[in-house]
Design goal:
single chain, mainly alpha, 6 helices
Length: 148
């Protein structure tokens, strides 16, 4: 019961993180004013494309891991190495996110930003625990099929 709850909570948090990334990207596209012409500087060009590619890859990894955690029918499809890689990458993204939010919180004075960073760390820890639980299930599944 606890395992199922943690997996579903982790999947929900991963989906919330994807929604957050997309909302931030949309708000930057709509509300940021391009001042490159005023400042007489060149636009970012390939750097912006690289950032968008990395962000798209992160979104795909998070959605893949959320589907693996929440949908048992999806977790049985595909090769084991792909499921392990997806959950491992999602765990790494969560650990890096928790580390970044912790560093950001420690660098600031007490205030609402510290609370927001604390919530981000809590969500990242829950999501990474769910991904680790999914990885444990994948390794158990591999052991059972190897012994059978």
């Amino acid at each position: 019961m606890t395992s199922l709850f943690l997996r579903r909570a982790g999947a929900a948090i991963l989906c919330l993180e994807v929604a957050y990334l997309l909302l931030m990207q949309l708000s930057m596209a709509v509300f940021m004013v391009d001042t490159s012409e005023i400042d007489h500087t060149e636009s970012a060009g390939s750097g912006a494309l690289l950032f968008l590619g990395a962000e798209a890859a992160a979104v795909l990894v998070l959605l893949w891991a959320a589907a693996l955690l929440a949908l048992p029918s999806f977790a049985d499809k595909g090769p084991t190495w792909a499921r392990v890689a997806g959950l491992g990458l999602a765990t790494a993204v969560q650990v890096l996110g928790a580390w970044s939010a912790t560093a950001n919180a420690l660098a600031q004075d007490a205030g609402p930003d510290v609370v927001i960073n604390g919530v981000m760390v809590l969500f990242a820890v829950i999501a990474s625990a769910a991904c680790l639980l999914g990885l444990r299930g994948e390794f158990r599944r591999t052991e059972l099929t190897a012994t059978a």
